[in-house]
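Design review, sub-item: ligand-bound model
Attendees: FS, YL, KQ
YL presented the inputs for the iron/sulfur cluster complex:
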Amino acid sequence: MDARGGIGGSLKGLDLRAEIDRLRKERNAVILGHYYQKPEIQDLSDFVGDSLELSRKAAETDADVIAFCGVRFMAETAKILSPQKIVVLPDMDAGCSLEDSCPPAQFKAFREAHPDHIALSYINCSAEVKALSDIIVTSSSAEKILAQIPKEQKIIFGPDKHLGGYLKRKLGRDMLLWPGVCIVHESFSETELLKLKAQYPDAPVAAHPECPPYIVDHADYVGSTSGILDFSKTMPGDTLIVATEPHIIHQMQKAVPDKNFIGAPGADGNCNCNICPYMALNTMEKLYLALRDLEPRIEMEEGLRLQAKKSLDRMLEMASGTVGQGDIGARQ
Ligand code: 13P
Ligand code: SF4
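KQ shared the predicted structure:
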């Protein structure tokens, strides 16, 4: 980092918020932020949303630069949908355990072993896996998309076995699951959650479907980050137990300041293990440098981009309900 200005060195004394605001105008940049970003980054983002909403924003923006404050698969999605834009990610090491769990070569072999299945893939995967998939889903669009696929169609679902398992149970669909997990949602403890529920017997629990079944089974609401945020605004009572990455609580406190939000605990009852280590890599300093230097930049080979775009376009169409059942079939 020092080679580009030194986070601890020449950035000292800079008003980072003012500099980011100046650069975003100069560069005609839009800053897209996920709910799992630090509060100061959420607060300066032009738009904060879940994976589907951020993909839609990336596809429709007329900015010249997209500064993506999220993780790499999200910034890659923005580049796939908006190739003419410069897309920067403040820290290129901001990956995802779900993406890491699904190496493209192994996924390709899995697909080839099941030629009569279509591949429905969670957006938390690499561009290569998107290119090997028929349809992408997000947590907020998965149910709607799955409902449009004929019952008799065989399906591979990857890389999140917990989201896949939740969809199987809820919709009664038999799908072959890739065995990936999110390390963040995997770290919630059922024992500690039950202790918390005993302490707050009237508080509902909202959980992300990336959580294991032993957490989801205790939830009053299961949905994407945006869904959980909406639930916090309309839920009964004044206390909510939140089983997802705790930075989303910042938006809840802004939207409904008189309510009480408690993050679901990990195994030691009070750990930081449910903070996403990848999302946390983005900082104000790195965002400033990304806007100043237009680096690190997402670049992608055009053939890969076009192949990955097919499954993402299908997601965008099906999530807005513009594809008929007859249109769903194997990849071309
Ligand atoms: P959503 O924001 O789409 O619910 O996804 C959460 C997530 O896993 C981000 O990594
Ligand atoms: Fe990946 Fe989990 Fe972090 Fe989301 S919270 S980016 S799924 S590791």
